[in-house]
Amino acid sequence: MIKVINEKIGMLAAFQLDGTILPLLFSWQGQKHRGFEVIATRNVPEGQFMKFYFDLKLADTMYEVYFYTKQSIWVLSKIHS
Asked: Where are the domains of the chain?
């Protein structure tokens, strides 16, 4: 089942020297989610800006999140359970 969320979230991430982004922990609706595995990444250009997408797996749940450079925000896009 896929649930569309599209809400801003808090994210702790490491921005690596080689330009990669590594999500470490995110908070949504008062809960902190950590210990997930980054399954896939992709970059989607939006004009002069970029959305960096991450598929994060935690137990039996997949979270699709992205970082939007236009506003410097993190968004929880979808939850696959």
From this structure: 2-80
18/32 Cα distance (integer angstroms) = 27
Place of tokens 């896929």: 2
pLDDT for residue 20: 92
14-63 pLDDT per residue, tens:
999 998 999 999 999 999 999 999 999 999 999 999 999 999 999 999 99
Q: How far is CA 60 from CA 18, 21, 36, 56, 57, in A?
A: 31, 23, 11, 11, 7
Length of the chain: 81
Using CA atoms, how far apart are residues 45 and 30, in angstroms rounded to an integer?
Answer: 31
Q: Give 3-state DSSP helix, strand, coil % of the chain, rounded to 5.
A: 0, 75, 25
Closest residue by Cα to residue 76 from 64, 62, 59: 64
